[in-house]
Amino acid sequence: MIKGSAWFKAIGISLLILVLAGSYARAAEKVDVVLQDQTGGTATDHMAIISTPDKVTAGQVSFVIRNESKSLVHEMLLLRNSTSGDLPYDTTAQRIIERKTVKLVDTDDIQPGKSVTKTVRLSAGVYKMVCNQPGHYKSGMDTTFTVTP
Length: 149
Known about the structure:
This protein has one domain (28-148): Cupredoxins -  blue copper proteins (Immunoglobulin-like), CATH 2.60.40.420. It has one helix and eleven strands, in the order H-E-E-E-E-E-E-E-E-E-E-E. The protein is mainly beta.
């Protein structure tokens, strides 16, 4: 039998374990990401990444990324946002220099009409979603994604 302050310590530790277990047991938040261009049958006249929602709470996040294009391959990179301004860019290759970024999600190539799901644990902060196919980033395929505490 536990007596005195040892009993309170045991209760406190048990409650802490339950709270921590509950935070890890929370289901991943779902984020729908649509990759669009002019060939996708939507009314868009430009390339875009649309994230719904564009803000989630820190923890597990599942990104369901759908390429709505009829003819172009796209991808989605989730990068830790840099406060130093523009992303490092190779103008000859027309791509972000990935090795100079902090990449948290990389879908690789997503064929037209296909979807990919990626799940990652994110901490609070501001992130950048981009398509790094040649020319796509500079054509508007980027958006900001926020994770709150």
